């Protein structure tokens, strides 16, 4: 005896096929984006205030004014935190924007290496994880 599955039943079957790991990785990326954005805001504020915690090295090829870098990190941090919150809402544009912003953050942190080397390396790795988590294949796109 053949059973007929209505359109609503097919939609429920597709929703059940979504891997919890993928959803978990996207949620993890969102948490890391919000946290990283907030920390970038704090680093930006400290750099704008010319906090003595930063070591200024004038011999770096990509030397830039500490206050200028502070504004870059402050603005980038705000946008990254907003995109991270948007990932929690399930906004379709948030994944693509998250990948772009994580890439920009990787570049900014590479150029920030002489001022805060350990912090920059940690954030480069975190941004790489965010990009991986947001670009990983989704089960719902395969069905």
UniProtKB/TrEMBL annotation:
Residues 25-138 form the DUF7144 domain. The chain crosses the membrane at residues 21-49, 69-88, 93-112, 118-135. It comes from Streptomyces himalayensis subsp. aureolus. InterPro entries: DUF7144. Keywords: Membrane, Transmembrane, Transmembrane helix. The keyword Transmembrane applies. The keyword Membrane applies. This is DUF7144 domain-containing protein. Coiled coil: none annotated.
């Amino acid at each position: 005896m053949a059973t007929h599955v209505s359109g609503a039943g097919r939609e429920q079957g597709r929703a059940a096929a979504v891997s919890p790991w993928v959803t978990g990785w996207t949620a993890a990326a969102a948490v890391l984006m919000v946290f990283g954005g907030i920390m970038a805001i704090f680093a930006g504020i400290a750099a704008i205030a010319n906090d003595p915690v930063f070591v200024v090295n004038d011999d770096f090829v990509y030397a830039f004014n500490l206050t200028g870098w502070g504004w870059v990190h402050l603005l980038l941090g705000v946008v990254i935190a907003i995109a991270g919150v948007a990932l929690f809402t399930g906004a379709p544009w948030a994944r693509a924007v998250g990948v772009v912003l994580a890439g920009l953050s990787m570049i900014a942190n590479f150029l920030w290496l002489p001022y805060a080397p350990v912090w920059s390396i940690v954030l480069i790795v975190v941004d790489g994880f965010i990009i991986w988590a947001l670009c990983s294949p989704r089960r719902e796109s395969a069905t």
